[in-house]
Amino acid sequence: MTDPNCIFCKIGRGEIASPKVYDDGVVFAIKDIHPRAPTHILLIPHAHVGALADAAPQEADAAARCVRAAAQVARDVGVTAGGFRLVVNQGLDAGQEVPHFHLHLLAGRRLGAMG
Ligand code: 5GP
Ligand code: ZN
């Protein structure tokens, strides 16, 4: 369910201190340590979900719960009027650093073109 060596699993379990801005027991959210926008929050399933393309249905459901949580967090932090972007990095070409599925919630500035 969780990976003992994974940084996001450790944060989820509370082994590494990182204030959670949201936690519904399935998904938690933390501020990105290197924010790329005025609002940069990570939505992370407590369960260790690895490569999205290989995810079992239950894991994919946990990933989907991140989208629901992102909408709630966007409302909580007041960025729905200005808008926001949700990003998933998967694998090498996307520059994924942490191999535990997560959504980036970016907001607070004009985000420019993707790619
Ligand atoms: P990825 O490139 O895997 O999609 O994004 C991983 C993100 O996690 C990066 O934006 C990075 O700044 C963030 N990050 C990595 N380690 C930590 C950490 O220990 N705490 C927090 N809050 N963010 C982290
Ligand atoms: Zn993990």
Describe the structure.
The protein has about 120 residues and is α+β, with helices and mostly antiparallel strands. The protein has one domain (about 5-105): HIT-like (HIT family, subunit A). It contains two helices and five strands. The protein has a five-stranded antiparallel sheet with strand order 1-2-3-5-4, with helices on one face. The longest helix has 21 residues, at about 55-75. The termini are far apart. The mean pLDDT is about 95. The structure holds guanosine-5'-monophosphate and zinc ion. Guanosine-5'-monophosphate binds near residues 31, 42, 95 and 96.
Secondary-structure blueprint:
Layout lengths: L6 H7 L6 E4 L3 E5 L7 E7 L11 H21 L6 E4 L15 E5 L8
Tags for this model:
binds guanosine-5'-monophosphate, 2 helices, binds zinc ion, five-stranded antiparallel sheet, HIT family, subunit A, single chain, 5 strands, alpha+beta, 22% strand, 115 residues
